[in-house]
Amino acid sequence: MKKNPLKIAVIGGGSSYTPELIEGILVRQDHLPVRELVLVDVPMGAEKVSIIESLARRMAAKAGADIHIHATMDRPSAIRGADFVITQFRVGGLDARAKDESIPLKYDIIGQETTGPGGYAKALRTIPVILDICREIEELAPDAWLINFTNPSGIVTEAILNHTRVKALGLCNVPIGAKKDIAKALKVDFSRVQASFMGLNHMGYIYSATVDGVEVLPQLIEMFDDPPAGVREHLESMTDIIWPMPFLRSLGMLTSPYHRYYYRNRMMLEEEKAHMAEKGSRAMQVKAIEKELFEKYKSPHLCEKPKELEQRGGAYYSEAAISLIDAIYGDKGEIHTVNLQNRGTISNLPYNAVIEANAIIGAGGATPLVIGEMPTRVAGLVNEVKAYEQLAVKAAVEQDYDIALSAMLANPFINDYEVGKTILDELVEAHSPYLDYLKR
Amino acid sequence: MKKNPLKIAVIGGGSSYTPELIEGILVRQDHLPVRELVLVDVPMGAEKVSIIESLARRMAAKAGADIHIHATMDRPSAIRGADFVITQFRVGGLDARAKDESIPLKYDIIGQETTGPGGYAKALRTIPVILDICREIEELAPDAWLINFTNPSGIVTEAILNHTRVKALGLCNVPIGAKKDIAKALKVDFSRVQASFMGLNHMGYIYSATVDGVEVLPQLIEMFDDPPAGVREHLESMTDIIWPMPFLRSLGMLTSPYHRYYYRNRMMLEEEKAHMAEKGSRAMQVKAIEKELFEKYKSPHLCEKPKELEQRGGAYYSEAAISLIDAIYGDKGEIHTVNLQNRGTISNLPYNAVIEANAIIGAGGATPLVIGEMPTRVAGLVNEVKAYEQLAVKAAVEQDYDIALSAMLANPFINDYEVGKTILDELVEAHSPYLDYLKR
Amino acid sequence: MKKNPLKIAVIGGGSSYTPELIEGILVRQDHLPVRELVLVDVPMGAEKVSIIESLARRMAAKAGADIHIHATMDRPSAIRGADFVITQFRVGGLDARAKDESIPLKYDIIGQETTGPGGYAKALRTIPVILDICREIEELAPDAWLINFTNPSGIVTEAILNHTRVKALGLCNVPIGAKKDIAKALKVDFSRVQASFMGLNHMGYIYSATVDGVEVLPQLIEMFDDPPAGVREHLESMTDIIWPMPFLRSLGMLTSPYHRYYYRNRMMLEEEKAHMAEKGSRAMQVKAIEKELFEKYKSPHLCEKPKELEQRGGAYYSEAAISLIDAIYGDKGEIHTVNLQNRGTISNLPYNAVIEANAIIGAGGATPLVIGEMPTRVAGLVNEVKAYEQLAVKAAVEQDYDIALSAMLANPFINDYEVGKTILDELVEAHSPYLDYLKR
Amino acid sequence: MKKNPLKIAVIGGGSSYTPELIEGILVRQDHLPVRELVLVDVPMGAEKVSIIESLARRMAAKAGADIHIHATMDRPSAIRGADFVITQFRVGGLDARAKDESIPLKYDIIGQETTGPGGYAKALRTIPVILDICREIEELAPDAWLINFTNPSGIVTEAILNHTRVKALGLCNVPIGAKKDIAKALKVDFSRVQASFMGLNHMGYIYSATVDGVEVLPQLIEMFDDPPAGVREHLESMTDIIWPMPFLRSLGMLTSPYHRYYYRNRMMLEEEKAHMAEKGSRAMQVKAIEKELFEKYKSPHLCEKPKELEQRGGAYYSEAAISLIDAIYGDKGEIHTVNLQNRGTISNLPYNAVIEANAIIGAGGATPLVIGEMPTRVAGLVNEVKAYEQLAVKAAVEQDYDIALSAMLANPFINDYEVGKTILDELVEAHSPYLDYLKR
């Protein structure tokens, strides 16, 4: 069947990650015919998006690609008629992130961009905006696919899929990164590796890993037992920690990097506090990195993605996103790990919950592969986190302080009402006007 | 990874279908290295299996294949060390089938090989045998995959998967046949067609059909509205009936050929009665066809599958089975429609129920693609049939007449206790000694 | 706590059953203080309701009760401020029932007032009216309890509870009748007997029966084995049939009278056809009985419920209804068998399905007692009937012919599309204007 | 029906609580005819049980009750033929409890007898013993009811109901105490109050409270807003804390006393540490109280329950237990709050999970009242705690260290692997020989 060339809108187009997306599009020119790429941003990001626009044009020119690339502040015009909308915006920017990281820490609670109270505040800022975007998509591009990167990706996708009619998939670079790390640790080609994820975004357990279809998870787990250099770095990259063997043997699975916050909370808290004292928040470090990056981006001689971008922390984002678009457009039937509605995939999670799982991707979208019942040893934690996530969405959708408080108390990082309420109130205050809807 | 060449055991190797299997193996010689093929049968089938053995050897010789092919009555020796065990036997042979077809009909109830009381009697004869086979596999070839064709395939697979530790997949030629028919009706290449099945064996609803990933089910449904020749025959082949449009619009899906027995029961009963009066049972017709086939098979000049086999009614069995083995052996990641445990695939069927659904096939076996909740308009019937099937298995496993009676009464064809009990008792008597375990 | 005296509105107040209700109220005068009783009917029933009004007043006078009793055609005024609304109306009257009984029979399908196509047509006529009534209750008496008798009581209650905010309980005289029959068969006092029902209205299986808390179901079942006179009649009254022992031993439970239509469908069909040929429809017989009854009711000397009413077939309706009202008003904590939302009571039925089950009744309404998983031997049939019921409600609520057809095909009495569609179309035509909403 | 007089065996008969049980039996003499009461204990408790035996005999004599009361170390003889077995033993005694309370606290984790790592260690010590007892009941008193008090009551009952065939109910004094407190706070008679509990033992949320059937929960919640003396003490007794209003408004329910450990964990930890520093463990305080109590019990002049027992902390245990026995024996149909299998009572907890819920009690045992779906705001925590409990049972039943570790990590008090493993290992060591089965 003949297919039309594509229009892609990138919301948050001024992000420092965008050159990766551009690269991802350009290397697929032969079979993924993008005719128009619109970079949308808000006035606060006008300068950045303009820098990106110029860089993107240079990259396209160098690659000989005939793509109409332009930046705009006019979101509806960008969305109108789009085939794919990619959302990677950050409400409040890195300054807001700095607050998400530092406020909880004042009360001896992990301050983290996507989990705990920090991630919660980010969700509360993001959901109203994403729902606005979805209303526009429903009206102006009802057949478009929304590919969401914006963190906390699982919660944001939960809001989209349970409160709008938009076709959407949530995306994260963790699963693709884990597969890359597995391949490297086992020293086999990436194409021979498959891994199965069970759970939620930033809470995905790897319950199977295969090379050419043969199960290798037990070997992978045993590799954590005093790994040699050349292997250690890849294991560490996968889980951000070399787990002790009794832990892994008891769990029988591998973790995401974010599981450290749940299974080594006390240690991570000490680490975070030390870091904060020493170097300030991660947001501020990223801000410095970004500043440098954009200086580079400005150079009229740069016409490809600079190497430094990889240090930024978002490796494989582009690969995940553009290969997903490619799989939909090309009806590839590939397996990708995405955020979508449960619908029985994991039988002991709510039917409508958004989960992160392997799915077959084709022109019709994503169909998850059945996982069955989660083992009891993780079912409690995953259900708790999902309950928190569903309450977070409900609080934002119903703009209700009582629900917002119950979401905070449902978060596993918070085990004390007084602490939870204090942090919530301080975040609401600090994030004015974004969270004014929770004031009363 | 290097893989060893394969040993395949075919139980019921004297079946007239076996040449299709041989053909399927021979055309895949380059990538599916079969080194040994054992055709197992019972003394009653000694002559037939010997004919098949000779034919198979001639076929292999012609194809230049180095496969050790031999027939045996010694099932354990055939199973020992097998990589795949294919079961396609028929307990009691076609004479038993004739009883399954004729006894219910005496009481104005559909007499059919795989559904209703006839299929039930076949299940009751088959389950004890398949469980014996599975005990042997557990002991002698614990890593083997069992590919079951033996009808009623869904019930037999339910018995295997819920009562043994054998890795098994149930198979049927209906789904692959439907996809072939869809391709022909739409005049597109088979490779571009995908179809999604929901339900049970011989009760699979087609709820999605795509060409290159684009949904075409609504068009397919509308084609039933007075289809022209050249299309009509393919639609008819798919569902064995040209459904009236109000039916299909209300259903919103396509059916299997066996749905006629549920949705046009009265008509089918009249048809069957007329057929029986005119030509005797289908079993007796098949017996005649088989006689002729085996005459052909005997010919020392025949060294390929004869064309006449296709008329026999089992088109694509070989393709379904051998391509499934191929997908497992080659870790293909292809989608096949198989019988396996539900585990949440269809959320409104029991977790452990065996269903027929699309699944990704790889070296680790089959992982079903999530279907979600069946629509209410089919959930009642499918649940009723599944309840009957689970009771049928339970009756055979526990060898309990009361349960056997409740299974009969749970079958949708039976709506009268007196009729159900009469037929059950007559079948038990007629199928002595196979069903003696239900006498009391 | 002091409670106000009650206003009760009876919709369908001109029913021949109403004197039973009056009696039920009058015998509870001391603790159930009814101050106002409004009998609502439609113009077609004006004469009847006026006769009932006079009789009711005479009954109240004789009992020395100070109740304001009046008839009206003005439904909203009757509902306004009511504490209880009792619905016992019949859309289309007995003439419509006659069609429900005779039309299916023309096609060799059971013609029955509450089950099969006949009950379905009644549901389709009733649901639009009950939803109108509920809108009025929501507005004019939002705290009122609706006690629904109108058949098919389970389907009508399903419509109310899933499509309105009215507090409602569905009621049937079968469960109370069964308990009476059990007490009589065992020759113990009714007060010592408890019975547990599992399933749906007119499809309730008795899975436990106790005397003073001691299980007696096995004895009760064995009593069906050639029961002596003095017992036989009570067993027969309970199930409307003396079930053969193999049936009951296989089922392990007792049935309602309506199970005959499912488990002895062929026999019942023959019976019905013979009856119809001999005496015409049951509706016409009831019409004659009613005529006589109303002649009696007219007599100014009659000031109590006449004995003949019991023959009418609705024994214990009044007892069921008024004792239920009494249990709510008096916060009694008694167990009644009612129709209400499942909410997990039976784990293998949909969460929102209306079921018939034992429940604790108090001022807050009804809380069902957990039943758990239905046994497989009944789960299929009950799920099938519930699917039909949910489709029937959906067809009426969405006024959609396609859904109406799928409901008809989902009914276990119908196993042939042609038959089902023919009957549906004929019923829609015959019941004009009530079912005009399904014409297209 | 005539019933036989009862034999009751009390395992842990030397408990200081036993006089309450005796009293409970004696005040029900007229309708609960106990003929034999056997007090079972282990050699370590020989002196205590002998003191209790004498006191119990004096109490019975004073009450004019003809009960054969005797103490024994021979458990099987006590169980043989018992109608009720009450378990209230403490494996390892108060010295073990002192370790449960102090070891976690060393690592800044709540040390508590029934929740957290302390309760977990108690469960691990108790489960092997209770399963031994159940094997004896299965053999020697298969019709007996086991009434379990032994803490953690929910976990112990989970072990019994999922791993033995014993008929058992778990009991706790929290629900009855809460109802008493509600009555006092509202200044109404206890008999007019009903309360509905949702969740688990020591994790029961009060989601409804009624006086004469009228809902009063909202008023109760508002009473926490600066309650006057005379009310305050009863609210405090109910929840062990005066919850701030924003917490209660967000929760919309009332808590058990143990919820403080989950919702005010940090505060409770500080409190516990201060207490421990000041007064030593609660176990040691109880030990002192018990010493005094037993001194009192020894007095030959004491022939009733001494007032001081109430201070001990187990108020209403006797009332809960003996009134439950009374309700079973007398087929009362009363509502009690007990620990039993979920079976769908709470739809978002596992089917076989033991929960604490309201149930109708009669001769046949307990039937829970349907609760439906827990609200999201508590579903996460309750599922997490239940997962921990199920893992705890599994660890004890399978005697598997890996599972024991995963149970510890699943407990909400533990959010750091290192801390969890350290505490587990130290508990296993400290509780030798009871937990030697987890050594490796």
Question: In a few lines, what is going on in this structure?
Answer:
4 copies of one chain form a homotetramer. Chain A is of the alpha/beta class and 440 residues long.
Q: Care to describe what's here?
A:
- 4 copies of one chain form a homotetramer.
- The first copy, chain A, is an alpha/beta fold.
- Chain A has a domain at 6-171: 3-Layer(aba) Sandwich (Rossmann fold).
- In chain A, 48% of the residues lie in helices and 16% in strands.
- Chain A has helices spanning 18-26, 46-63, 75-79, 93-106, 116-140, 153-163, 174-186, 217-223, 232-239, 245-251, 260-263, 265-279, 282-298, 317-329, 376-398, 401-410, 417-430, and strands spanning 6-11, 34-40, 68-72, 84-87, 145-148, 167-170, 193-200, 203-211, 214-215, 334-341, 354-362, 365-368.
- In chain A, strand 1 (6-11), helix 1 and strand 2 form a beta-alpha-beta unit.
- The first copy, chain A, is globular and about 55 Å long.
- Chain A binds chain D through residues 243-244, 246-247, 249-251, 262-267, 348, 350, 376-377, 379-381, 383-388, 390-391, 394, 402-403, 405-407, 409-410, 412-413, 415-419, 421, and chain D through 243-244, 246-247, 249-251, 262-267, 348, 350, 376-377, 379-381, 383-388, 390-391, 394, 402-403, 405-407, 409-410, 412-413, 415-419, 421.
- Chains A, B, C, D: Keywords: Cobalt, Glycosidase, Hydrolase, Iron, Manganese, Metal-binding, NAD, Nickel.
- Chains A, B, C, D: Belongs to the glycosyl hydrolase 4 family.
- Chains A, B, C, D: Residues 197-413 form the Glycosyl hydrolase family 4 C-terminal domain.
- Chains A, B, C, D: GO terms for molecular function: hydrolase activity, hydrolyzing O-glycosyl compounds; metal ion binding; oxidoreductase activity, acting on the CH-OH group of donors, NAD or NADP as acceptor.
